[in-house]
Amino acid sequence: MSKxxxxxxxxxxxxxxxSSYVVGFILSLVFTFVPYYLVTGHVLSGxxxxxxxxxxxxxxxxxxxxxxxxxxxxxxxxxxxxxFIQTVAVILLVVVASLWIMHHLHYNMTPxxxxxxxKKLIEDEGIxxxxxxxxxxxxxxHTTHKVIIKDGRVSPVHTDAKACDMLTFINxxxxxxxxxxxxxxxxxxxxGESELSxxxxxxxxxxxxxxxxxQFHDHLDADAAGTFTVEP
Amino acid sequence: xxxxxxxxxxxxxxxxxxxxRVMFGFWVYLMTDLLMFAVLFAVYAVLHGNTAGGPAGNxxxxxxxxxxxxxxxxxxxxxxxxxxxxARRGNKAQVLSWFMVTFLLGLxxxxxxxxxxxxxxxxxxxxxxxxxxSSFFVLVGTHGLHITSGLLWMGTTxxxxxxxxxxxxxVRKLSLLSLFWHFLxxxxxxxFTVVYLMAFV
Lengths: 232, 201
Description:
The complex is a heterodimer.
Chain A: H1 2-14, H2 18-40, H3 46-68, H4 79-108, H5 114-125, E1 129-130, E2 133-134, E3 144-150, E4 153-155, E5 158-162, E6 166-171, E7 177-181, E8 196-198, E9 204-207, E10 212-218, E11 221-231
Parallel strand pairs in A: 3-6, 5-11
Antiparallel strand pairs in A: 1-2, 3-4, 6-9, 7-8, 7-10, 10-11
Chain B: H1 2-47, H2 57-60, H3 63-89, H4 92-122, H5 131-164, H6 168-197
């Protein structure tokens, strides 16, 4: 009799009951279908979608840990829990640091052409001169010219600017614009930029560091096209 | 009478301490395994864009297949839990049937995964096609190997339960097995999200 009571009390604390497993199972189904629907239904896009489905993966993991692994409900001292937290810390360090380092490596080692890559780096990092020689990089802010893309059309179609001004693409359509330079279907490069992904509410700017007249267009919708002239 | 009850209680607490020790040892193994998977995930996250001119994940993967595989594993995790409840109640027949269901769900999962792999390889997308595919096959394949060994373990344990019945030792074995199975479920959730869903973002 005493033995039976003992096993009963331990199974209440440490292990799950049928109802807790059912709750865990239902939650895990919810946390599977919601991100699946978000991805297939194109409800969100880009980094918002990415962040949301990652949050759901973490929620799903918590459900599994709490309802199925019963972590944290062991007898004290909770070595399992402590060891788990340590492991998660190491994992975060390894994964986040690897991604961070590799992202920078990727950024620094993706040349379009050698010259364009150096030019882009010089612009991005604001390097004014190398070995006493002026790089021609634009430092400090100048006038900003806005190009608004709405209903598949660009306005203004032509922009006149001075060197080192900024050109900002603002997308008011729902579709993402892949702005590139030159005429369709060719992809040109301007000042080290080959393509700008412009989403609604996320304007993208370029520094007009190269003089002359250039064309730009949406790679996916050649009608959304325009020109700009940069004078020295 | 009082003496035997005291002795029984002492034996019980010894057994419980032994259970805790075995559990902790197995937990240490699981955590190191998790670290290995974390490294494989990091490799995949870094390399998934390097397709060497070949197709990326969104052209190769099937969302419904990944969803089906996820549902199979989630359900098997659930039935495995129900099997554990039966084991703690000492209900041998229920243990056998719940774990049999778990086994079949796991086997179906493995079958679907192998079919996906063989289709990819048949279409010429192999381990050596690109860095993306190398990291994909290694990550998902390592999980698949764990599932395979889990199924072998489950199969042999079920034979022992059937032959020798449910004693304390057997319940301990089953609880380690269920821990392993839930753990594989957690790893799969991240494969589902990071490999399959993110390919379509």
